[in-house]
What we know:
Elements: H1 8-24, H2 33-42, H3 50-58, H4 70-94
Amino acid sequence: MYIGRPDVRGVTSFLDGYDAATRRSGRPLLDGFHEWLITIHIGRQNSFAWWVLIELIALPDHDHADALTPEQESCVLEVLFDLLDTFLAERETAA
């Protein structure tokens, strides 16, 4: 996949755009992902965007006002793709 920038912002922007496009076709990619993250990994209701939840899960001790280091970016991306793969697999088997 080509995302333009190989960082968290680039990947999450790509996924949001892809989700918007798939909503038009009737099968949104990220439908239920935010709620799944809250239920499975956060445990309490909040209004953070899904990409913020991923960062909280990947880097629970990180001061989120600070920019991410390259190592932190890699960690967040790894967690993002692992969680997204798990979510999509669970959604597929539930359908």
